[in-house]
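Example (one chain per record):
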Amino acid sequence: MENFGTLRITEEQRTFNKGLVRSVSALVIGEPDLIANLSNTAAIIYQDWNDEATRIGRNRVNWVGFYLLGPALNRSRPPELVLGPFQGRHACIRIRKGKGVVGTVAQVESPLVIGDVHTFPGHIACDASSESEVVVPIFVKKKFVGVLDIDSPVKNTFSGDDLEAFSQICTILGEACTWPDSILKCCSQTVTSDQSSASSASASSASSS
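Predicted structure:
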């Protein structure tokens, strides 16, 4: 559900995006600590983007952060997305797969750019001022581990070039950071849960035929 509308990106904005990727790469590569890297990445995107917004003619962002795969409070339920390092107002702590933009990205494991969050079915309004959003999945060895989530208080803020830059940043984080077993084990649980659901569905179908 990419919705770029008539948004046009300037050469200055492209140059900024390339610089954003370089800045994150310079801080992250060589430092394996996950929390340190996610914290610095959120700060770089939030501060650099807003510092340059007026100069290069783009809308500001009001929230930048991460949701990471983690065990549900009720351990009988599948893993869910848990709030990680961020910049902006306090946010929803836990989001189930399939719920809102973040949960949908976790479910389909593909990025979403939403030009108007109020048109997205089941949108979760953690910050009532948010009007548009981009959410990008993070993978470790092809396994989904979390998302980068960025909100703007203005509709149709994010372009395809922005999405490409954020995707590159997520690739860097997936490869450079040491991801804890508490997250990686949830990947296995998710696969097991999905396989279990599929097996149950097959068994049910077989018994009814």
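Caption: Strands lie at 63-70, 80-88, 94-95, 112-114, 132-140, 143-152.
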